[in-house]
Recover the amino acids of this structure.
C-alpha cells in the first residue's frame, strides 16, 4: 500500500529501466538473509554465509549500501510480525564467532524467528563488514 502511495507521488510514473545514477542501495536485511540459501554451504559456517551475503552486496548499484534489520521490543509493537505469522519461537543459540557452524537448513527459518539470534546475526554481519578481511569500494552500514 505504501509503495502504491509513493508511485502516485512520482511525477514521472514507474519505469522498468533502473536509473543509472544510483548512489545508495537500501537492503531489507531479513529478506537478504532468507534469500541466501544455506543448504549447500561449504563449509557450513556463518563465515561462508557472510561471504555469500557480501558477494550479493557487491553486485548492488551505488557506492553506499545500507543493510537494515528491523526489531520490535515486544510482540505488541508489531502488527507486521503478527500478520506474517512470525513469533519469537526459535531456540536461542549463542553465536560468538563467524567460524561457528550454521544451524541445519531445516532449522534455519525457526532459528531466524528468535530475536536474540537475529540480534547476534546482525552483530556478526556488522563485524564482518567492518573487518580488515573486507576490501571494497562500497561503504556498508548494518543497522
Amino acid at each position: 500500500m505504501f509503495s502504491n502511495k509513493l508511485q502516485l507521488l512520482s511525477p514521472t510514473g514507474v519505469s522498468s529501466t533502473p536509473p543509472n545514477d544510483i548512489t545508495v542501495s537500501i537492503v531489507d536485511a531479513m529478506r537478504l538473509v532468507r534469500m541466501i540459501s544455506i543448504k549447500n554451504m561449504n563449509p557450513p559456517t556463518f563465515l561462508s554465509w557472510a561471504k555469500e551475503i557480501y558477494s550479493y552486496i557487491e553486485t548492488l548499484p551505488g557506492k553506499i549500501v545500507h543493510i537494515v534489520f528491523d526489531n520490535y521490543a515486544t510482540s505488541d509493537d508489531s502488527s507486521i510480525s503478527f500478520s506474517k505469522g512470525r513469533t519469537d519461537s526459535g531456540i536461542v543459540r549463542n553465536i560468538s564467532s563467524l567460524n561457528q557452524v550454521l544451524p541445519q537448513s531445516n532449522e534455519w527459518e525457526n532459528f531466524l524467528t528468535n530475536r536474540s539470534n537475529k540480534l547476534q546475526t546482525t552483530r556478526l554481519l556488522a563485524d564482518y563488514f567492518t573487518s580488515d578481511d573486507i576490501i571494497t569500494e562500497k561503504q556498508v552500514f548494518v543497522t
